[in-house]
What does this fold into?
Amino acid sequence: MTAVPALSMTGISKAFPGVRALDDVDFECLPGEVHAICGENGAGKSTLMKILGGSYKPDAGAIHLAGKAVQFTHPRQAAEAGIAIIHQELSLLPHRTVEENIFMGHELARRGILDKVAMRERAAELLRRVGAQIDPQAPVSSLSIALQQVVEIAKALLLDARILVMDEPTAALDERDSRTLLKLVDGLRGEGVSIVYISHRMPEVTAIADRITILKDGRKIWTRPRDAAPISEIVRAMVGRDLKDFYPAVPVSPADEVLLAIEGGMNAGLRDVAFNVRAGEILGVAGLEDSGKGALAQALVGDVPFTSGTVALRGQPIALRTPRQATAAGIGYLPGDRKREGLALRQSVRDNALLTLRSMTGLFTRPQRGALAHDAMDERLRAMDVRAADFGQEVGTLSGGNQQKAIIVRWLAQASDILVFVEPTRGIDIAAKAAIYETMRAFTGSGRGIVVVSSDMPELIGIADRVLVMHQGRISGVVRRGASEEDIMHLALGLADAPSAEAGA
Amino acid sequence: MTTVPQSSPSRRQAARITVNSGLVIFVALYAVIAFLQPNYLEPGLFMNFLRRAAPLVILSCGQLYVILTGGFDLSMGAVATLVVLAASILINGDPETTWAVIGALYAMGIAVGLVNGLVVAFLKVPSIIATLGTMLLVNGLALAWSGGAARGDLPDNFRNLGRLVWRNVPVIGTLPLAALVLTGFVALAWFGLNATVYGKRALAVGDNPRAAELAGTPVAATRILAFVVSAVSAATAGILLGGFSGVSVNAGEGLELQAIAACVIGGAQLLGGRGSVWSAVFGALSLFALFTLLNLLGLPQALRDSIQGLILIAAVGASMWGNRRRT
It folds into this structure.
């Protein structure tokens, strides 16, 4: 192919105070090509895309669109030049309809009056083009995250975007929705749209990308066609080392003592849930979106409690009506949305890690004594390898992996018996992932238990001793270590009775 | 991005500067006052300045508790008015009852604080609306109870709390009782935020109530306690105001907004998550120094409000601007 690249960025450099975010990076994308960018968090992917989108000005380097040099000083200019960026966090207005969102800022008007009929037709046409059956008049809040993403893409197509940047588009999607999205990406490629695809999910990258570029510490490591880039090579280039022991070894002694027992757990999202967590066990929970796997986690931590059923910890019945009760009972929670539910972003790393200890102690406890002392907590943070220049800095300035570790430290300090993890490694880099898996094993190694809810099936298969699979609020089956993704998918889709019908209780 | 050590000292420095912005402004304003009226540098006049500033500083400390947890307390001024009017009615010229009445005044204040806190924490009414409601309610009750006009006198032992000044004190010359009350209250407020775990809980609740709740923080109790502290500070300020200026139906008018403005000038962040006792103390002293300065310059009283409005906008604008530049 000797086509003129739709996008070419050459020699891009960008420094922030104290950080060299990008150093002489070249990147190009041909028309009708899906070009994936991989790299750990902090490798410079987002910075590169923010420069492309006109949010940042590069210190050096040039951007050419279809051979023409461009310079953006405002995101609007980039949008007008045909660049659309779909962020991980969607930018739709939830209470407006799909068509209003698609036309937001670009409403069609006739003689100064909104032309609703034309907008509706155009919206329907765009939605057809992306192969989605969405009512243009439905409010966005009524759509699943997957469909909202499709609306974002339709919005980009309205502006006739020639370059579509997708930043972790599948991070919030389950397996089935991810496949649908990938199909859509494939279709857009067929129409000649250039797609820059950023993802941490390796199987996805190698399935969809024509070429793959690896960034590490602000530098480009290499760009290769897909066939020359097996996953192992990508991972090695990203982290600079092999990750042979990505998932920690399984302990030899089988778990037996029952730690947590749930019987007949019911609420609006759960139907007759019964299972055990054994001492030393990592129990995975799989399922599609809205299968009840999120509701199960929320019930276990008292956020959206069970309305009936019994919960017993080490044989003692416990009440889990509020998160505070769950915390007092020894159940800790790592929420799926760490920014909204996990962290007080403007408080320091240390304060976030100390939050639970401070919350559960008496009101008049001196904050500087014993386990509450800064030194004691700093020790724990260092042991967890939370990387911050200073634990007094705002936790919001850390990378996702380090933020996640800080929340885990919070619960380790509280000496919880059971940890409920929801999407523990979503959007974090591979090295931090490995560290978190290691911590999970060490935690259960001391006779405690973990319930891990995840949409990432390889993760569940790799880390969990057993996996509960949920479908429509029920546990549709339990699979043991060594099961395949197909086994889990089968149960998640509600297609079969539990094949390895091991009693969950 | 990759963590690079050298980026953090500048950030830490920036934080230190924001914490002390109130102090900087106060020193600057007081310097101007002293330039115009050199005798403001004498200990006696400075003590008098502190005495008159005491109610605002105390109110600001209380307001700060609520601001840290992410709310506003608009009912403080009304509580202060209620305290002044109730004191004159209940004491009714009998100095013997003063101390019992002061106890009753605090009980009223705490009751208002509890109502505010319970409404905000359990009915989930935004605090700005809930306390606007109690403000109208308390103001109306106080006026109805007093018959719409101030009546009665406060006995000397009550008024002394705001008025009494000891003379011939070594080193500082004069010492107003109100300055002691001020110091005591600030020390208590500091103790609550820094020497107990409450302060960090309040900051976490103000920053992200959802995350705090999921981490086990008693969010409702934290909020309610903040409103109670705020109401106690309003009662204290009301007692001092009664001492200064006697009984008046608008003793506390507008104080709630001054207290909010003071916290913001001192660097506390509206909607929670950032601020310290020093934001409240130095913010309040700055605001009071500004009022003093405007008096010295001979500006009409009415312009105070306009200037206060301007300052509030400028202070919030500056902190937003600073935030945006940092990200």
User: Anything to note?
Assistant: The longest strand of chain A covers residues 19-29. Chain A touches chain B through 55 residues (CB under 8 Å). Residues 175-190 of chain A form the longest helix (16 residues).
